[in-house]
Every structure is written in structure tokens, then in C-alpha cells.
Write a structure and sequence with these properties.
The protein is mainly α. It has five helices and no strands. It is globular, with a radius of gyration of 22 Å.
Length: 144
């Protein structure tokens, strides 16, 4: 009798544990952490290091953190197509600097990389150079 009761408790415990694990596994969250400093100066490396986590390595919005966001990240390869075939480099630079918001980002969920890049170095020109390199890379990745 004692074995049967112990077995029932063991089975009950395993089932309860599985349900708890399933509930925890379904909750996806994005933890805000301070981005690490980088030595990268080219747009491709900057994109892979800072943007791909949400926008995906291909820029189409399928990064590993995308599922945990309130809204799916945009497909960055379609920026020109959404702007009558022209890449709006000034607008993209303003977004990176935090001067222009995007409704899908809500309350600045997307970091303003301009400030982050500028804070990494004593020389503000390095931060500006990184933003311009990132904008150039975004322009290069536009769908043809």
C-alpha cells in the first residue's frame, strides 16, 4: 500500500513539474541589458552585433528575440519599397539617433543606437561613423 501511495505522489509530482515547466517555457521575455562595447566600425558587423537579435541576420524580422516582443520587428529589407523605391537615409539616421520614433516600437523599446554608439567612445565622431555605416549597410540590404 505504501508503495502505491509513494508511486502516486511521484507521478503527481512529475506531472505537476511538467505543467510548471511548460508554463515557464511559454513565457518569453526580453531582458533589457546594457549593450557591450564594440570595436566594429563596419555596418554589417554592427548590424549582426546589435540589430540581428530582433530583426534577424537577414533583416527580415525573425531574430531570436522577435517572439518575445509585443510587435514583430519590421522587415528592414523592405524600407526602400515602402518609400516609393527610395531609401530614406536621413529618416533612418534620425530613428537611430532617437530623434524620430516608430509607432511599432512603442515607448522606445528599440534602443537608440546613436546614443549607445556615442557613449562607447570618447570621440563622438566614432559613434557618428558607426551610425552612418549602419545606415549604409541597411541601404545595401534592400530587396531588389
Amino acid at each position: 500500500m505504501k508503495r502505491i501511495i509513494t508511486s502516486h505522489y511521484l507521478i503527481f509530482g512529475l506531472i505537476t513539474g511538467l505543467f510548471c515547466f511548460a508554463a515557464v517555457a511559454q513565457q518569453k521575455t526580453v531582458r533589457a541589458v546594457r549593450p557591450p562595447a564594440t570595436s566594429a566600425l563596419d555596418g554589417r558587423s554592427l548590424f549582426q552585433e546589435y540589430c540581428a537579435v530582433c530583426h534577424g541576420k537577414d533583416g527580415k524580422g525573425g531574430g531570436p528575440a522577435a517572439a518575445a516582443l509585443k510587435q514583430q520587428p519590421g522587415d528592414l529589407t523592405q524600407i526602400s519599397r515602402q518609400n516609393n523605391g527610395r531609401f530614406p537615409d536621413t529618416k533612418i539616421l534620425a530613428i537611430l539617433r532617437g530623434e524620430q520614433s516608430i509607432p511599432a516600437h512603442g515607448s522606445q523599446d528599440m534602443p537608440t543606437w546613436g546614443k549607445v554608439f556615442s557613449d562607447m567612445n570618447v570621440d563622438p565622431n566614432v559613434g557618428q561613423g558607426r551610425m552612418h555605416a549602419l545606415v549604409t549597410y541597411l541601404e545595401e540590404m534592400q530587396a531588389k
